[in-house]
Amino acid sequence: MSDRTIPADGIGMHLYTMREALAADYPGTLQRLAEIGYQTIGVSGRFGHSAEEIRSYADAAGLKIVLEHVGYPRLTDNWEGALADVQTLGGQWIVVPSLPVELRTLDGFREAARAFNTAGQLAKKEGLKLLFHNHGHDFDEVDGQVLFDILLDEVDADLLGFELDLYWVVNGGKDPIDYFRDHPGRFPALHVKDMATDGSFADVGTGTLDFAAIFAHAESGGVQQWLVEHDAPTDQWESARTSYQALASIRY
Hints:
CATH topology: TIM Barrel
Protein name: Sugar phosphate isomerase/epimerase
Keywords: Isomerase
Strand content: 15-25%
CATH class: Alpha Beta
Pfam family, one: AP_endonuc_2
GO molecular function: isomerase activity
Mean pLDDT: 98
Oligomer: single chain
Organism: Kribbella ginsengisoli
Largest sheet: 8 strands, parallel, barrel
Order of helices and strands: EHHEHEHEHEEEHEHHEEEHHEH
């Protein structure tokens, strides 16, 4: 460990955490997040607002949008439009948050890898980078093959990176540090989500994950953004404040 801290402009909020507040008052929610100290956001759901409107709300709050989550079906349904929207938002990454259930097989992951190679090339042409966000089941092993690793191995590193969800890596029985070491530079963004002792979601810094140890290897992993996420906060604003303070104070 050292006395390094996360750069201030690397601490963000993945907006899935704040979906109730966003549904009620999108621009006001972004203002409050900025007041807490967040400098970046990841967009997840638009709540009836256009990309142009969300960009204007973020600009007014002084927040930078770094990415948007876009469902897997968009890869073949006006992918160009999805890329254009991320450009409008000012993001650098377009993120597929999960694979359809029917693709969670060896053949399915290989099909997804082919789709990501194609979509990633189009993203690269537009100055963007395609990322994939993991869940725990992505680390299932079939015939000795970890499903997630198919995407690492079969998609060009220039065309696919990963928004590594730390909770779900651990839930899936793997260690994020191993991925940072074994696949350097592939993980430009993190979902920083903590795990309670009973395995449920927890505010950052209140659970069992050793974030300081994980972040000590983040440079190897290529991490540029640490995005807070809590899938089911009891109080979203308390969660946002607690998690920000924890991230801002971690030494690694």
